[in-house]
Write a structure and sequence with these properties.
Strand order of the largest sheet: 3-2-1-4-5-6-9
Strand content: 15-25%
Largest sheet: 7 strands, parallel
Order of helices and strands: EHEEHEHEHEHEEHEEHEHHHH
Length: about 280
């Protein structure tokens, strides 16, 4: 890795932002940890930031030469808030931007796909990370994790579709390389784990590793959409349910070598993630 200036991490307490901040600071890089509450992050300088409050943007960008961008959560049109900020960042001297997107959203596609499309014209050095679904969705604060704890059930409209679930630590490791390597990737990177699993497989692995029975219940698209509307805005719920339907049709049944290629090590398996969490909690 090359010596860098200061990296602004937007969403520094989130699933990938917190891990990216931790890996950067552990390697000796300077980090500004941005969030609405400016929550302290070990080894980083906390700074208040709200996508929807432009008054917070200039101070967050002060002294920064690269940014890690996590879009505003649940916003079906993040470009409206993100693109003005990115133009400001470019004017403020930021020369490298790494955007967190999704394997389900192509360049120019819905939601953050519009930001993806704009990024190469704004920054000479850039990358778009397009991870598959996070393994941490089943262990953290995600709706799947909550329903596993509360009901022993994973609810989806994904049927028997398979997904290359990826560990957030591996996403962060790729983000660190994309932010700090001498040459930026200047491309989008689809990030997956080493294998594809159905939600039935996920339930079976959780049951085997934890000893607690977990099952996958399959819902029709409409019921899944309606279930999600109790948790997120209606338009975003429809988009998430559409993603489940795409999984059912095979859209996420793939693996890539991007994690291994960028980090020099293979991605972690879901079983290894659960085994590690069980050891930490015992």
């Amino acid at each position: 890795m090359t010596t860098t200036g200061t990296t602004l991490i937007i969403g520094a307490t989130g699933t990938t932002g917190s891990r990216t901040a931790a890996q950067l600071t552990a390697a000796g890089h300077r980090v500004k940890a941005a969030g609405r509450r400016a929550t302290p992050v070990a080894g980083a300088e906390p700074v208040p930031f709200d996508w929807y409050d432009p008054a917070t943007h200039a101070a967050a960008l002060d002294g920064v030469d690269r940014v890690y961008l996590i879009p505003p959560l649940g916003d079906p049109d993040p470009a409206a808030a993100m693109l003005p900020f990115l133009h400001q960042a470019c004017s403020a001297g930021v020369h490298r931007a790494v955007l967190l997107s999704s394997s389900a959203i192509p360049e120019g596609g819905p939601a953050v796909g519009t930001v993806h499309q704009a990024l190469p014209d704004l920054f000479g050095q850039w990358a778009v990370l397009r991870p598959s679904w996070f393994m941490q969705n089943f262990t953290g604060t995600h709706a799947h994790a909550r329903s596993i704890r509360d009901e022993g059930i994973i609810w989806t409209a994904a049927e028997s579709g398979r997904v290359g679930f990826v560990d957030a630590e591996d996403i962060a490791a790729v983000a660190v390389r994309a932010l700090t390597d001498e040459q930026a990737p200047n491309t989008d990177l689809v990030l997956t784990g080493p294998e594809t699993l159905s939600h039935d497989d996920i339930a079976a692995v959780i049951t085997e590793v934890t000893g607690r029975p977990v099952v996958h219940r399959r819902l029709p698209y409409e019921q899944m959409r309606d279930r999600l509307t109790t948790q997120v805005p209606v338009e975003f719920a429809a988009m998430l349910a559409d993603m489940d339907r795409a999984i059912a049709r095979g859209a996420e049944d793939r693996t890539t070598d991007a994690v291994h290629r960028l980090t020099g090590r293979p991605p972690r398996t879901f079983r290894a993630l659960l085994d590690g969490e069980m050891r930490c909690s015992s």
